[in-house]
Amino acid sequence: MRTQYAPLALFLLLVAMLLVPRVVHGQRLSLTAEEMKHALQTAHPEEDGFIDDVVDRVNNARRPASQRLPAAMVESTFQWARRKNTRYRFQYFRRALIIRAARIGVRL
What we know:
single chain; 108 residues; mainly alpha; 5 helices
């Protein structure tokens, strides 16, 4: 009686194995670089370049894993920095993201 469910269980396992890599690698940042620049009030081209690099590290699947950033980390750091002092939001974001990325082995 138990063996009649074995083919179904094997099929479900195969489907799960095929879908998981797409879900893990399909993670993308919900914000655009322009939205982040506006909210963090970037003032210099270097600051804009940092934001562009961060967004690319999240969205570009061709980057090596050692250079990628999780979307959840970037978004949570962004939300945290947005609540800080209006004048220095970008500086809060950059410093916090550098520290958090270093903890997972990504150098910014």
